[in-house]
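To close the chapter, one final illustration. This time we ask the reader to focus less on the individual chains and more on the assembly as a whole: which components sit near each other, and how the overall shape emerges from the parts.
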Amino acid sequence: MELLWFCLATAMIVGYVILDGFDLGAGIVQLLVAKEENERAQVLRSIGPVWDGNEVWLLAAGGALFLAFPILYASSFSGFYLALMIVLWLLILRGIAIEFRNHIDNPLWIPAWDTVFGGASAVLALVFGVALGNVVRGVPLDANGYFFLPLWTNLLPDADAGVIDWYTLLVGATAFVALAVHGSLWVVIKTAGRLQEATRASCAKFWWGLLVITLLISPLSFAIQPNLWKRFTSHPWGIVFPALALAGLVGVRVFSVQRKDKAAFLASSLYLAGMLASVAFGVFPNVLPSNTAPDFSLTIYNAAAAEHGLMIALWWFIPGMVLAIAYSIFTYRHFAGKVDGDETEGEL
Amino acid sequence: MDSAVDIHRLHFAFTITFHYLFPQLTMGLALLIVVLKSLALWKRDDSYNKAARFWGRLFAINFAMGVVTGIPMEFQFGTNWAAFSKSAGGIIGQTLAMEGVFSFFLESSFLGLFLYGEKRLGPKLHWLSAFLVFLGSWLSGYFIVATNAWMQHPVGYEIGTAGELLLTSVRELLLNPWLLWQYPHTMIASVVTASFVMSGLGAFYLLMQQHEAYGRLFVRVGVVAGMAATLLMVFPTGDGQGRMVAQHQPVTLAAMEGLFEKAEGAPLALVGQPDMERLRLDNPILIPNVLSFLTYRRWTAEVKGLNDFPRDAWPDNIPLLYYSYHIMVGLGTIFIAIMVLSGFLLWRRRLYSNRALLWTLMLAVPFPYIANIAGWMTAELGRQPWLIYGLMRTIEGASPQVSAGNGLFTLLGFMGLYALLGMLFVLLVIREVAHGPEAATVEKQSSGPYSRPVRAQRGIR
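The assembled structure is written out below.
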């Protein structure tokens, strides 16, 4: 039962990263690629009707963790206190930027919100990667299953590490580049004209960056977290997850060159899913390893809620998510197609 | 204010109070928008559609504020109240996850369709999207109030070997007797806010002699809904909620009423100041025997006073609890007077020309917000010193590793950020009110939410 909920929670997180990932990535595109106000508006319109639904995946994933692994929820949220609060502030600013930008047509108002949106998206991509890096590296859990990490200490991934060290920062950079690729592919699908071409070009550059950093971060992760090596050698079938990530990475390049944009976007989703699944597989059965005393690590067994609650929750969680996915598909179909290239003033 | 637990309490109190300024309007307004859309279908009158579109815009601004200030609420259970989450997460995690799965997906999907899909959907499907937004927001309220009701009156659990709380019955959790009064009381309070806002804005337009046809429509719908809601607020929901408190939290009842000594035929205090040094109510104005009757339906029933309970069972801020409760009840009574009088004059067709009452309706707008917040303060202060009533004290629930200094840092951060959000919100609402309902045309489908034509069109008038 714990294993099933571990898979469900991982699936929820993968769903969140793929969906909100493309609108965070669109924010990076807006920051780095879209130059004119008209192009920035196009980027925003490409995610406008769906970003809020994507962010609900974060709340639903958080809810799944809370009900299934309350001890992990309590420990990690209080331990990463400052980092999480900063995430909340960024999410607030980003949401407000998207929703309020178009209320006032003013030459100061709109660019200000565009910058907030792009900046908050970029930093969030980085911070989510840093968080993942912390899960791989481990945290100094005590006997009661608690810890508290300052934001940074000496920037080394040792026992005194803060949230940010060179390793977690590198994972953050990986997330940033991966979501930049993912978001670019979405913008390419949803737009046309100069913006589409410029995004295509920058996506190709980001792809090379992603290739280099993926090849760099993978061996480093094995060096930082010995459990990864143990897992992949004792259960060699797990190699399928990194293989999927690699296939996705290659697929992005192949399909982009052929201008099969939707296939490239799906390949990028496969890359993200493969990377996250590799991490989940590699740290298992830990959900939060201790980097000071391995016995204090939180595992799917010692962090889970009681059997009865997990069983009951299956009965409503799975049908509920099927329903939720059905509404999402309905919304995506309703808002399918490209956003207008140039809008004419006053047309109604 | 120097201990970590005090900071964590203030942190939650501040963020939830600011957050609840928005959902309390959107939940009630979602219902009123469904009413407007239904009237449009039934009377085949497009002005109701226009009114719904206009309120849809105000709804969207409030909804966005509610969403962004709501995300921190779920997170704070883990960040600031880790010991509570660790112990009770297997139970309240259920209701919080249900909210995400069953209502947030519903709301977020159909709000987009309601706001930007009117042309393509057609009138009936557009009505349906409004209804689903209403359903989503009221379901959301149900799961949140269920979570709070469980903290007020825990049911369906057992205590595990390590002292953690284990869920035994999700049915009991979702049909908690406390919830069955607290939920309608909360939701109707949200309809009170929405109807005062709608009638208040209508009164403003009438007094300004702008958009007068819409002003009359808003006053009419707001007053009719407000009459029903303010009455239902007191009876049966307020009465039922009060008897729940009397039955399960008798010490809270004594503190709310400022009753220090046990009394047969206990009086109801209209006014007075709890004096915690001398343990008495100063300058009281009392109505004899009424408290006994309201609580037990007998004029001479015995009601226990604070002195019948040990000091460590008393809520820790009795004066604030007493004032919150009295502000809620006092305002609720005034609301009934305003709405019933307005309703009477509406029936006699004299309301639209009665400047004094229109002024009253307009100036009344902030007060349901105050009453709602005061009501929640009554519930939350009244639950003290418990975090989960009878099971876990508040002092035991905070995150053991998060220091007061770190908590204060993020509290100040939230205060700064929310001050900014508050100003932006007021600015945008004032602009929408100034544009008025006539500017609310159907938005162009293909351009979706982020189009210039909308803005350009609004600039024309």
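The two ends of chain A are 55 Å apart (CA to CA). Chain A touches chain B through 77 residues (CB under 8 Å). With these observations in hand, you are ready for the problems at the end of the chapter.
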